[in-house]
Design brief:
Number of helices: 7
Oligomer: single chain
Order of helices and strands: HHHHHHHEEEE
CATH class: Mainly Alpha
Number of domains: 1
Strand order of the largest sheet: 1-4
CATH architecture: Orthogonal Bundle
Distance between the termini: 23 Å
Helix content: 55-70%
Length: about 140
């Protein structure tokens, strides 16, 4: 179990260290040294979310923060979040944040939808559930 926890921590660290670069599940798997299928299964069991979904949600959360805290054009924020078009970004953003980026910016309140996951303790399974102790990045 401890080894699996360490693998997931490596994945989380790689994502956070490279969040604004062009990364995907294949690159993450190569960097950690495991197959993408094994990593996805392990990551999902441990966090309750796929690697792709976590990466997408983290990028959109960072984009939401930039929308509120900067005057950067939405197209630049979309590109920095890994989207090749403002339309694709707007669609994904609206699915997570309910509002399109321009409306969200006008509202002016940043609400993080996907904080960084930090594993605090080893996870363990019961017959019916998987429990994990998770904490916020800044928790003591």
């Amino acid at each position: 179990m401890k080894q699996q926890n360490e693998i997931v921590k490596k994945v989380l660290n790689y994502i956070e260290d490279n969040i604004e670069k062009e990364i995907n599940v294949d690159k993450i798997a190569r960097s950690v040294g495991y197959s993408k299928f094994y990593l996805n299964r392990l990551f999902s069991e441990c966090t309750g979310i796929t690697i792709y979904k976590y990466l997408q949600s983290r990028r959109l959360t960072i984009a939401a923060e930039k929308l509120i805290k900067t005057n950067d054009p939405i197209t630049r924020i979309a590109y920095e979040a890994g989207y090749e078009s403002q339309q694709a970004f707007s669609l994904a953003f609206k699915q997570l944040y309910v509002y399109p980026p321009k409306t969200y910016r006008n509202i002016g309140v940043f609400v993080p939808k996907q904080s960084r996951i930090s594993l605090c303790k080893n996870f363990y399974k019961t017959k019916y559930s998987l429990f994990i102790s998770m904490c916020k990045e800044n928790a003591a």
